[in-house]
C-alpha cells in the first residue's frame, strides 16, 4: 500500500490535519454541522460540557457531551467547495493513519447531521418548517471532478434537470441516509433540495447586474418528474450527500425554512426556527 504524499494530505507540525486543525483523537462518531461559525455555540451551549475547542478559519469545532453522549459540532462556512474540504479532512481523520500515511484496513463510518437554513420553492412549504432532504441536487460542478456513483433514478433526475434548465453541465442528484432520516427526521416534512453554487445569481437574485437565468426560481418551482418536485434551495446539501456516499459515511441534511421564494416572504424570527431544530436534533441523538 503506497503512502499518501505530503502534498495530498497536509499535516500540520502539531500532527493536526491542515484546514480543520484537528487530530484523530478529536473526532466523535456523531458530528453536527452548521454553516455559520456563530451557530456552533448555539448548539454547544446545550452540551453537558465542552471538552475541546478549535477555531481555524471558518472551521470552528466544539467537542463534548449531550446527556452523556459524545458529539461534535462543527462549522463549514458556505458552499460545496468548503464541504469538500471539510468532509475530506474528516474522513482522513477517521480512516487514514497519520503516522504511516496509509489508509486503514478497517473503515470508520461517521454519522453527520447538517443543520442549515433554507428557502422553500413551493407555497405549501411554509416558514418555520423543519424539512429533511430526501435528495440533494447539485447545480454546482464539484462532481465533475469525482467519479460519483448514481442510481438510475438519480441519473434520470440529473439528465432531466440539465435539459429543462438548459445548463452547460450535468447536475448531480444523490439520496441522503435512510438510517439517519429514521432517527432524526421521522416527523419532518420530506423534500428534494437544490444546492446552488452561490447566493445571488445562482438562486435567481438580481441586484445591479443581470443574470443569465432570470426565471431560475420559477423554473425550479415547476420542475416535476413522476411527482418528484423540488422543495427548497440552499448551498451545501448535495455536496454533503455526494461526498459522504463516496466515503461510506451516513449523512442527512435538515433544513430550517426561513424564506419562501414562491411567496417572497422571509421569517420574522429565523433564529427561533433554527433553535427549535437544534433542540429537536440533540434530543434524538
Quick take:
With 285 residues, the protein is an alpha/beta fold. The protein contains 7 helices and 15 strands. The strands form 3 sheets. Strands 7-13-10-8-14 form a 5-stranded mixed beta barrel. The chain has a two-stranded antiparallel ribbon with strand order 5-6.
Can you describe what's shown?
This protein has 285 residues and is α/β, with parallel strands linked by helices. The chain has a single domain, classed as Rossmann fold, CATH 3.40.50.1580. It is 26% helix and 29% strand. The chain has helices spanning 39-44, 80-95, 152-165, 178-184, 216-222, 237-247, 270-282; strands at residues 30-34, 49-56, 59-66, 69-75, 96-97, 102-103, 111-120, 130-138, 172-175, 189-195, 224-225, 228-229, 232-234, 250-260, 265-266. The protein has a 5-stranded mixed barrel. The longest helix has 16 residues, at 80-95. The two termini are 37 Å apart. The model has no long low-confidence stretch (mean pLDDT 96).
